[in-house]
Amino acid sequence: MIGNALHPNRGLRRRRAFAIASAAAALVLAPEIALADTAIQAESLTLTPSGAGAVVSESAAGDGKALKIWSNSSALKSVPVAQDTVKITVRARGQQCSGAPQMSVYVDDVRRISTSVSNTTYADYSATLALPAGSHSVKTAFANDYRSSSCDRNLLVDSLSLVSGTTAVPTPSPTPTATPAPAPTATPTPTPAPTTTDPVIAAAGDIACDPASSSFNGGSGTSTQCRQKATSDLLTTGRFAKVLPLGDIQYESGALAAFMKSYDPSWGRVKSISAPVVGNHEYATSGAAGYFDYFNGVGVSSGAAGSRGKGYYSYDLGAWHVVALNSNCTFVSCSAGSAQEQWFKADLAAHPTRCTLVYWHHPRFSSGNHGDNASTDPLYKAAYTASADVLLAGHDHGYERFAPQSPSATADSTRGIREFVVGTGGKSHYGFGTAKPNSQVRMSGTFGMLELTLHPTSYDWKFRPEAGRTATDSGTTTCN
């Protein structure tokens, strides 16, 4: 039914385009004129969920109060500004616990600041903007909550301020140039306005070694094991809109203590932009509790990893719809008619975008050690019926790219799904057996990640190896 409703109208589907902006570093502005600050006391922001923090007394805060956020959540406010805005500053401090709190600041849903708040006293974190006068949403998010018996990691926000005005040197002329403009132009700003760019994402699974492994080596690993730090170095450039950890994120059992010692110092550096799926090793801890505690917050029912007991969710990214599913089918059923499969079908029907990406841990098709996983077939069929474009998976520790194909493994260049198996996050290497139908590229012995650029009607891919290695694969394909 979904296919009949959606596929004939692919060309008429709605496009979504969101400005994707990298987090900007703090900088000193040139001398300004006509400046005006819009100051926001953090306690006036609305917490989501509401029980994730509270207003507390803080003698060092500007008005003696601060917003303390103690679990993964965000605080939002709509702010009217009378003039064009050129800078945002957030005054915050962090309560440290096995690491610093990670703070992200969004303006109109575009991430402007992403930083570890390592200062235990209040400090300013700033970024440049180019916003027109009007009402804008400002959101501060805390994403790496952690507690132990001896400490508690929290984020305290004192205030936010938006600086409005112009940095242009005034001239006698009443207009910016001698030539009359056909329409009013924006007030000049210290840097060009951010241009709309297509989002770039990074993905890999099978990532962080158990810190008790003999190959752990303080997190640096060996040449063939425990290379999570080396692969994470590819992710910290600030150019990625999302990072997709593809399951088996923390070996051997996904315990929270192991996450904090191995995954957090490596891939955890980009936790604030990570959208994970759960692997089988995470379920070695009952209910994948360590996984959900790490990404959602200890005991928090829902967050960046989806709801406990489910582990599936979706979101829009640029013009694409992206769906994260749980392929641990013995714990969360993947069968036809299951709650997950029915939710997946309904989600696809509710988001009829031209381009769709789906990801889970166990590959439907694989030439690697584990081979094909028939348990995910109902999910693959639902994706195919809705003309999804890309499937990402891990589980087999290598890199494999398939041609677009149907659920029966028949090549289908019209509406087939292209699957990438990217189990190259750092744990170890597997080899390959007999190549499965439609397998186009297979690489073993190289750690790295898959980079995807999501254009409105197509996508580019490129496998990026860890430093010092040269194996790669790249290409581009139009969406179905």
Give keywords:
480 residues; mainly beta; seven-stranded antiparallel sheet; seven-stranded mixed sheet; globular; disordered N terminus
Walk me through what this model shows.
The protein is mainly β and 480 residues long. It is built from six helices and 26 strands. It has helices at residues 2-6, 228-232, 256-263, 289-296, 339-350, 377-385; strands at 33-41, 46-48, 53-57, 65-69, 73-81, 85-95, 102-107, 110-116, 123-131, 134-142, 146-147, 152-166, 200-204, 242-245, 302-303, 306-307, 313-317, 320-324, 355-359, 390-393, 399-402, 418-422, 439-443, 448-454, 458-465, 474-478. Strands 1, 3, 4, 6, 9, 11 and 12 form a seven-stranded antiparallel beta sheet that branches. Strand 24 (448-454) and strand 25 (458-465) form a beta hairpin. Helix 3 (256-263) packs across helix 4 (289-296) and helix 5 (339-350) runs parallel beside helix 6. The longest helix is centred in the last third of the chain and has 12 residues, at 339-350. The chain is globular, with a radius of gyration of 23 Å.
Provide the helix percentage.
Answer: under 10%
Shape: globular
Name the assembly state. Answer: single chain
What is the tally of beta strands? 26
Low-pLDDT residue spans: 1-36, 166-196
* Structural classification: mainly beta
- Could you tell me the strand content as a percent range? 25-35%
SS field, number of helical segments: 6
Question: How would a crystallographer describe the biggest sheet?
Answer: 7 strands, antiparallel
- Rg, please? 23 Å
Distance between the termini: 18 Å
Mean of residue pLDDT values: 85
